[in-house]
Automatic annotation (TrEMBL):
GO terms for cellular component: spindle. Pfam families: fn3 (PF00041). It comes from the Eukaryota. CDD domains: FN3. It comes from Pelecanus crispus (Dalmatian pelican). One of its GO terms (biological process) is regulation of establishment of bipolar cell polarity. SMART domains: FN3 (SM00060). InterPro entries: ANKFN1, Ankyrin_rpt-contain_sf, FN3_dom, FN3_sf, Ig-like_fold. This is Ankyrin repeat and fibronectin type-III domain-containing protein 1. Residues 202-299 form the Fibronectin type-III domain. Residues 1-26 are annotated as: Disordered.
Length: 690
């Protein structure tokens, strides 16, 4: 029995699959198995690549069809379809400048059929003419060849249709015949359009202006002629001689969205003559000299060698702030803070996740006092606490100082959100002996730090230009910040503004609304103000109107609601530069004691500025609701041109000296129409800096 059991055991062991004889063998087995599985995955990836290849082929086929559709739309003169395709696809996707089998581009067909609207649409999209047409003779020969081949093909198909019996092939031949007959007529129309076309007339309204001390700018309009072919490019030439001999340079403009060109790298104080000519498929037309005929690169500062007002100011202020910080580093008030770890700056996305939990220190209701609230908004939603309340912290519950002075100080602090901790450390010296004003401002810094800590974000946004008050003695200082990210936050709710306003109405008293009620009722107006105050003017020279009004504790400035960070204004022209000659003429006008006719000579830059100013003053008087006859007592500020970043500049129009600033109780007979507001001067200055 024992022998039989041993035999059975040996047989069973022999039937078992052989296992790995060592750990290395096990690893080899794993690698082999992994390799087999990797083969399967590779096959899957190759299938994906093949699928992507098929998709790419389909995409190219689709784009090829769109290219064919564009040619068809141009040939059929379907402007709507052309505009639709140009909007739907990029020029590269349409192969806009790749010739078809006949050597033609969409723009060639449009200009040779004299379809100006389609040609202009193609030109603005970046279309070019075919490079095969190097001369008038080559274009004429190419068109003649196309007409001859199309006519030959029509004759061949017509003979086949006439001689063959009616069947399926004959029906197909008839379709081909109709298509070639239509193409034959198209080529004949293109050939006729080319033969009857003539070179373009000269461009119109060619105006030359001084762009800087080393550049001039020329603007122009299309030729007035309607019989010539579509203009596809322009040439700007310049020289120091009125005969353009020798020429100094030229530039070809084939991007026709904006008809202007700036000639750079010129010598200040040198006169430059400029002329412009137009080109179509028949060649270049005659040049048109500019008005004025020449311009001298210069800037108004060259009149008296004045340096820019703000040159080095930002660097000087940064240096001064650094010196102040260095002095305060060893101050007693900083000793407790030396060993504190540097506070970590939280990102908006991370900090807001852990905001507004039930244990936060945001206030729910108002008592009598001074408060800080931060409005974070995104689209039509506003950020609130779990109690459906805007973030609110207390500044001072026994406030009794001058509000406006402290408020204006707070707005200046808003330019240093990152420096609040340092400012707090500087104000803590002998706090017990400080005045009421210093104590209040220290409490403001504490409230800012509290708000920053609870929100986990240092930038609280822009301060609204006036506090919100109620009859119970509550005062709200409001900051506004737009959140432009698309993140979602776990423990924070974005609530629609209308929903928050509705829920607030249900718990508030209509007879005695609190400052919070007033804030939420007017929240849309405040958000609009915040958005508009960050808008910028387009480049150009503007005429601004300076009007101030004074109160007991502040001076306010008149601004338009649509752009509250800029004075009331109208645009004079797109070129922001004032040349030396123009500024010299303005100085002569300002020195005249009696208003007399001071119209400069015709065809000069001074005359053009004179005409532009006349139009701008009339427009501005209408805007601010002042009778035009009163303008004779107004004057231009002649001390300087206000320059904002080199792209925007202002000339100031001032009312009579007695009316520049309206005193308290003084009636202003001409009040602006709706659409204006008055800002505290310090708030306006901060907004202009932003």
């Amino acid at each position: 029995k024992m022998t039989q059991q041993m035999r059975d055991l040996q047989l069973a062991q022999a039937r078992k699959p052989p296992g790995p004889s060592s750990p290395n063998a096990a690893k080899r087995l794993y690698r082999n198995l992994s390799g087999k599985f990797r083969v399967n995955y590779t096959s899957f990836d190759e299938g994906s690549l093949a699928g992507r290849g098929e998709k790419e082929k389909l995409r190219k086929s689709y784009l090829f069809q769109s290219n064919a559709a564009l040619f068809e739309a141009v040939e059929l003169q379907d402007l709507d379809r052309v505009q639709e395709l140009l909007k739907q696809y990029s020029p590269e996707e349409l192969d806009l400048n790749t010739p078809n089998s006949e050597g033609l581009l969409p723009l060639d067909i449009a200009i040779m059929t004299n379809n100006a609207p389609i040609a202009r649409a193609l030109l603005q999209a970046g279309a070019k003419e075919s490079p095969h047409f190097v001369s008038l003779e080559s274009r004429s020969l190419h068109l003649s060849t196309l007409v001859r081949e199309a006519e030959q093909r029509v004759n061949e198909l017509m003979a086949q249709v006439v001689n063959e019996m009616p069947n399926t092939d004959c029906s197909e031949k008839e379709k081909q015949l109709k298509a070639w007959e239509w193409r034959y007529r198209l080529y004949k129309r293109m050939k006729a359009g080319f033969e009857h076309a003539r070179v373009p007339d000269a461009p119109t309204n060619v105006h030359l202006s001084v762009a800087s001390s080393s550049s001039v700018q020329v603007t122009f309009w299309e030729p007035l002629s309607v019989n010539s072919a579509v203009v596809t490019k322009y040439k700007v030439e310049w020289s120091c001689s009125p005969t353009f001999s020798p020429p100094l340079g030229e530039a070809v403009i084939d991007k026709l969205k904006n008809l202007h060109f700036t000639i750079r790298g010129l010598v200040s104080g040198t006169a430059y003559y400029v002329q412009v000519s137009a080109y179509n498929m028949k060649g270049w037309g005659p040049p048109q000299a500019s008005v004025p005929p020449f311009a001298i690169p210069s800037n108004w500062r060259e009149y008296d060698g004045r340096a820019p007002r703000r040159r080095g100011q930002a660097e000087a202020l940064d240096h001064l702030l650094g010196q102040v910080k260095t002095i305060h580093q060893h101050c007693v008030c900083h000793e407790p803070c030396k060993n504190q770890p540097q506070s970590r700056k939280h990102s908006v996305s991370k900090s807001l996740k852990h905001l507004f939990h039930p244990g936060s220190k945001f206030l729910k209701t108002l008592k009598r006092g001074l408060y800080l609230t931060a409005i974070f908004y995104k689209d039509d939603n506003i950020l609130v606490t779990h109690e459906d309340q805007v973030p609110l912290v207390e500044i001072d519950d026994t406030y009794s100082c001058l509000l406006m002075q402290d408020f204006l100080w707070f707005t200046k602090v808003s330019c240093m959100w990152d420096e609040i901790l340092w400012l707090r450390q500087c104000v803590t010296v002998s706090q017990s002996s400080c005045s009421c004003i210093l104590q209040t401002r220290f409490k403001m810094l504490l409230a800012i730090s509290q708000m920053q800590g609870l929100l986990g974000v240092q930038d609280l946004g822009q301060v609204f230009f006036e506090p919100v008050k109620d009859k119970q003695g509550n005062i709200l200082i409001v900051t506004l910040k737009e959140v432009k990210t698309n993140q979602t936050f776990e423990s924070v709710r974005w609530v629609p503004i209308c929903k928050l306003q509705t829920s607030r109405k249900s718990v508030s008293s209509p007879e005695e609304p609190t400052a919070l009620d007033t804030l939420l009722i007017s929240i849309q107006d405040k958000l609009v103000y915040h958005q508009r105050s960050s808008h910028a003017l387009s480049p150009g020279l503007y005429l601004g109107y300076l009007k101030l009004c004074s109160a007991v504790d502040q001076i306010r400035v008149l601004v338009p609601e649509r752009l509250p960070n800029i004075l009331c204004h109208v645009k004079i022209r797109s070129n922001p530069n004032i040349s030396r000659e123009e500024w010299e003429w303005l100085q002569k006008m300002a020195s005249m004691e009696e208003p007399i006719s001071a119209e400069p000579e015709a065809e000069t830059s001074q005359n053009h500025l004179f005409q532009e100013l006349q139009v701008a003053i009339k427009e501005l008087m209408t805007l601010i609701n002042i009778p035009l006859q009163e303008a004779k007592d107004f004057r231009l500020y002649s001390q300087e041109v206000l320059d904002f970043g080199g792209q925007v500049s202002f000339l100031l129009l001032l009312p009579p000296s007695d009316d520049v600033c309206t005193a308290p109780g003084q009636n202003n007979p001409y009040t602006p129409r709706s659409g204006f507001l008055t800002l505290p001067l310090q708030i306006f200055e901060l907004g202009e800096e932003r």
